[in-house]
From TrEMBL, chains A, B, C, D, E, F:
One GO molecular-function entry: hydrolase activity, acting on carbon-nitrogen (but not peptide) bonds, in linear amides
Pfam name, any one: PIG-L
InterPro entries in the cross-refs: GlcNAc_PI_deacetylase-related, LmbE-like_dom_sf
Native species: Natronosalvus hydrolyticus
SUPFAM superfamilies per the UniProt record, alphabetical: LmbE-like
Protein name (database record): PIG-L family deacetylase
Length: 232, 232, 232, 232, 232, 232
């Protein structure tokens, strides 16, 4: 099984689906994380180029902890926009990896980069299987798209994955994003919830897990409903 | 695995979860249908006693087609009410069968008997495992309650079961309710949707199935969320 | 009364509102179907140009069965995007036909072409009556926009139209889309629900009809609420 | 056409559906208001008996202004409870008047009397047509139940009735409840919205009317969906 | 300011609103916790009477840590039912303490005792200010009722209270419920989320706090909306 | 405190948040209204340029009544579109005024200009604090964005502001929009609710106020939840 996670920024993979990706990898699935940007806008006393280099390396290290391959799609942090051309870039990315399933941000995420990533991925998904759309890679046919986000009133997970055995790996991966931790501690501001990165991740995973009889869990919605093999 | 379905009236089992019960039975699970009433209020030119006898027999025949055992809880059709005493009757029923899972009506069903059944079952569920509640049968510990209903804006199934291979069995079981078919054809009135019983059942199962990539499906919500073994 | 339906692809008219259009035509209303695209992307072993020609003819035949006129807006299948220029194309289309009401896709439809069509039509609707917007055709003033879609948790119809007397016409019209039936049977994939095109349409119409005391029905939401002449 | 409104307290008819009842009466329909209680708990420096007498007379006068007949069901103000016996009282009331449609409170109204009235009426509705339920009056078969309430996030009207031509009649009827106006001015407390009774009614009707192109409107939900004759 | 919290079981105060009560007490408000039951049904190898005595003492100790007074309403654990008589018991409790605000369970809580407590309190609230309802204590007029519950899709807090400075006190209070911790560890079953009592409480408070810029928070809905002094 | 309201058209400030802005100004806050357009498309027998001049003057007069400064952002009425460039225009506007809070349209408003304004403001908000985004003005850090709209099922205010003492000022400000009143009376059409401009505003404010114990109120949602100082 091949899993492709498309995330807007380097640390989004750990924050939203790191346990799930680690679980996939641990059971032998191929896992690829596609980073839309290198998160190069979230810093100070530096340049975008320097920050991009730093965060790319952190992303590579974090992905290695999770057991995932990486690819960078070269969009600009904070400036992802929806165009037909960008949608075709996502078509190329999906076709190249020909995943069984895709994980990405949910569409109503308030963060503009998350939202546009979600729309680009979803709309690309409707194109990747079309034979008449000729691109570098041949058509492929992923079975579903799973969406992640912060559990709030606008994101209510319906698919809950037990990541208890992978919470530690996820937290180790998250700690690779050193530059971001420093940035958040000094700058903070926009997202108060990052003030204690790892503790917040753990609390979120535990609060969700409680709903499903697990110690730690991550939650998703999905594009297509699917029937269950049996009453779960 | 033992499955207990608690339904208000004889034909509710087929209408709401007949395919799922047949699927359970077909794979070797023990299935019991507990009928709150014999549906003895839904007739004319007859008496409640006569109708009760007729419909009990139909229920037994229909359950046999599905592969299920039956039990009758002797509530009065159209007059099920919520009391502590009635709730203890449900405790006794659940403890007697000690099921792994329970299926029943969803709580916001507009039909009073359906609604009260749902409340009695759910509230009994919170009592059945208590050691200090001493009754005839010892405590038991079902893992979950699944709720069924007509898919409408007030009932949105989140657990969808593919019953394609059991749709025919379900329809055959439904046809055992001869007295009800006649009653609905002549009386109808309240529930226009029963005018063509089996065709309506099939259309509902197909319309729901389409959402989940199945030809025919039945839908449920559940009391407790559960994590999925893997992204379904 | 003049009714304008704006649909993304040739078979969308039949799938979502074919019975309603047939009912309008049958009572003497003028009905026009505006096709955003010719559905020329949904094929294989062919070219877009060939497929466009085939499907345009099928669309004309299907519309003739319903009793509707057609117009083609020449957008590209699978690639409809929201721009101010495209919005003005819809302004021109609406002004040309000066309809009393407009029918189109609902805005949260997951299919990108459906969603963008919905946004273009709705936003054009806010422009068509403005005298200061000078275009080829004079301003017009449709009273409302009605939205259709697959009844799911994200599309809950509030206006239900009884199409029992027109279900057969609708199904005949749907069968004109021969090329699409073949494509769906061999390719399928994306939308499993099309595996049996006409049976699915009928089941959906029946499942919805049951909610409103009709054998077959189609459902809509609307842009503006309207008061009812009397309690329906 | 016969319309039966079942309200918990004397002034509820004017507050929630006075314009609609006046409209029915004005076009020649038979209108009956059944008062569950005489509102005899909402006073001070008086007794329940005295207040009941005063408010019954006010209710009669107000109903006369609307053009409605009245009946009193003799429940106790503030103490309406759901029992099978009380439900049968409502069965008797509905069968006696054999209405085409019934209007009553919506089920999630926070006021206990409103909520219990709603449940009693709805559940009685499921019983009134049953031949085997033998009571003083023969079975009847109303087509639908319409629910009213204060438009809030928990009550979202889907059926909007233009009462512009009857707003004045409704306000005149409301002014008949002199004792209540005095009580609300001095006591208030619980329901701040009654501080200026008639102005609040008018503002509510106007705010709702704006949504549907009317100057004044009242809103309802309904038990059964119905298809519309044509797109309203 | 006087705050009255009405909870079904001894540990519910800490679980749902312990930080808020501690915050009230710390700033000098009078805080009273009314326990509907002593939680005497949740044990084994004991009797209800013994367990009641143990848990009452634990409740007293926990309340002392929070800085709250206690009262016991003598309902039976697991068997709270809605009756007019029980509602009047709540009227007496509320009038005796004459609180400014009341805190209690939210109405859609799946636990039967929580749900019935919520209904009894809310419905009593509508009675406490009525002069014609003569009881031992005179009428009182609390300004609002606040509801608490586990944050899930059925309980979405709209009023969020920062309890960061009181989280430690709350956890200390929770640890007073020694008998319950043991029961949950050995029995568990029904509510998996209690497996690690205090860690779960902290995770829930942190996950909610993140949404509102606080380290730890508790959430409520309220019966009446209120305007804010200024945009918070 | 500095408040920045970004509105699509000159009269939107009064319609949606005029009382709140007047309340801010009255207590000494700096208030600035940024008009995306001059509403120059909403007229007849005139030119866009003439109408822009007229409405700009009306906007200046209305803002003066409220006690607010104004700025015009020079977008085209009826043609606001989302682009990265336009988003940066909003970044510049927000940075120039460095507000504590921002007020703007809610994102699901059906009016295209309102919706695009909402998206541009929200997405700019995520950029204004970034040090690496170098523009004419330095980074700033507003604490929150508040959204306004017509209270309907798609806009449910959660933050309610009592504007009773400022309703008169708001109405006086609204009356400055003379050209618009005339336009709406003769043209109307699109928005029937404007037929009596000021009475509709007052009814809306009163109907909302009733929910929160105020005579007149305005309602908002917000981007970030915030904890309350105390239970409001």
């Amino acid at each position: 099984m091949h899993v492709l996670a498309v995330v807007a920024h380097p640390d989004d993979a750990e924050i939203f689906c790191g346990g799930t990706l680690a679980k996939h990898a641990a059971r032998g699935d191929d896992v690829t994380i596609a980073y839309m940007t290198r998160g190069e806008f979230g810093g100070f006393d530096t340049t975008e180029a320097e920050l991009a280099a730093t965060r790319e390396e952190e992303a590579r290290n974090a992905a290695a902890v999770l057991g995932a391959d990486v690819t960078f799609l070269d969009f600009q942090d904070g400036r992802i926009v929806y165009t037909l051309e960008n949608r075709l870039k996502l078509v190329d990315c999906i076709r190249e990896h020909a995943p069984d399933i895709i994980l990405t941000h949910f569409a109503d995420d308030m963060h503009p980069d998350h939202r546009e990533t979600s729309r680009l991925v979803t709309d690309a998904y409707y194109m990747v299987s079309l034979p008449l759309l000729e691109r570098e890679h041949p058509p492929c046919d992923p079975t579903n798209v799973y969406y992640f986000g912060k559990p709030t009133s606008s994101f209510e997970p319906t698919v809950i994955v037990d990541v208890t055995d992978h919470e530690e790996t996820k937290e180790q991966a998250a700690l690779e994003h050193e530059s971001q931790v420093a940035w958040l501690e000094e700058h903070g501001g926009i997202d108060a919830e990052f003030s204690d990165f790892v503790e917040s991740m753990r609390a979120t995973a535990h609060a969700l897990g409680r709903q499903a009889g697990a110690t730690y869990a991550e939650g998703f919605t999905r594009l297509h409903d699917t029937s269950v093999d049996y009453l779960e």
